[in-house]
Every structure is written in C-alpha cells, then in structure tokens.
Automatic annotation (TrEMBL):
It is found in: Cell inner membrane. GO terms for molecular function: ATP binding; phosphorelay sensor kinase activity. This is histidine kinase. It is a multi-pass membrane protein.
Amino acid sequence: PGLLLIMIAIIFLKNQTRPIVNLAKAAERFGKGEFIKEFRPSGAKEIRQAAYEFDKMRKRITIQLHQRSEMLSGISHDLRTPLTRLKLQLSFLKQQDLAKKMGDDIEEMERMLNEYLEFARFQKNEETETANLNDVIVKIVEKYQDKEININLEENLTINMRLNSFKRCLMNLIDNGLSYGKKVEIFTKKTLSNIIIFVDDDGPGIPEKEHQNVMKPFYRIDKSRGQNKAGVGLGLSIANDIIRSHGGNISLEKSPLNGLRVKVSLPL
C-alpha cells in the first residue's frame, strides 16, 4: 500500500508541475524573442490564472512591437517623397556650394531612412529557426573578400535565431569595424549557458564613458570615430536591439588590436 501511495503521489505531482514547467519554458522562449504561435494554459486554477495573464501580456507586447515597427516604417517611407522633391529642387539652385551641402544632408537622411526600413523589414514577423552559427558567420565574411577579416570559430555552435535579423546585426558590427579600422577579427566561444561572439577592430576605439551612449539611435562621437560621414549612428543601436530581442546582450571593451571590441552574448 505504501508503494502504491508513493506512485500515486509521483503521478499527481507530475501532473501539477507539468503546467508550471510549460509556463516557464514559454516565458523563457518569449524572453529570447522567439515567436510563440499559441499557448494553452492548463493545470490548477492558480496556475491557469498565471498562464492566462502571461498569455495576455505576451499578446499585448507583440501587438505593441508590431504597431511600433509599422508606424516607424510608414513614417520613414512617407518621408522619402519630400526628400526626393528637395533633391530635384536643389538641382535648380544656382549656388552650387550651398546645393552640395544641402544635398549631402539629404543623402544622410536617406541613409537613415533606408537603414531603418531594412531593419524593420527583417524584424517584422520573422520566425525563429535553428542555425549553425559558424556557417552563418563564414557566409557573411565571404561577402567581404577584399577586406582583412580573420575568424577563429569554436566547433558545433548551434543556436535558435531570427536568421535575417542576426545577419543584419553581424554585418553592422563588421561594417562598423571596417569603417574605422583596416582589420577585423571575429572569434567565438561557448560557455555553460551562453555563446559569446567577439568582434575586434584596429580602429581608434571608443572612450569608456561613451560606451552606453553609442548604443543610442543616431548618437555619434565628435572625435575620431565620429568623423566618418558614411555612418548615421544606427549601426550599433540596431545591433543592440537585435541581440536584446534574442535574449542576449552587447557590451563594448578595448580590443587587443587597440581598437574596439564588441562582445555579443547569446543564451543557449
């Protein structure tokens, strides 16, 4: 009889804890930015109530994120028309020096809009998939054939990611390094709970006091790294947003190459 009671108790406990485990897994997936199609609350009354509240919160956050992306994408798209008109009007301006300065400003605004539109396009409704991180990095680096990029990758790094968004993030980090330096090094390592990606460059680096500021949209440093006119101050900000939406984080350090090191940490 005692053994029977123990078996019944184990079965009962499993039935009670399974809904809690399912809720915890769903919350972990959502925290990593994975798309959850449907979540069905189950279990005791209190557990179902907590699960219902989680599901309501998940749906509200998802709707707000989509609305934000759609609104900003729409604004960015609508701004292209007046910018095009301004460019046409500048072509008739007699003061060529003034026309060139204004034209440069308009081109910078167009780069901002294009960069954000591309980011919004990747983020919208992109589902998570399992991918080999090494293959992703190698394929991206192959696009920079005429650049000095060295890689050192740990084997068997498989992770769940929104592939296009992650590619966008890594390309932003590589472009950022090549914009201010001549050499970029990428290497990876695996810990118990994370995969870490290091992107080093040999540029002038970023002062430690500016590490948090450069993650803000459109922020640019006035000194050596801010003299590059090709950037619009969105590269690191977009990369940070993408990694955080995957449940990871980005930090900046001094590179062994005496430039900037970007450390990307992603949960397994």
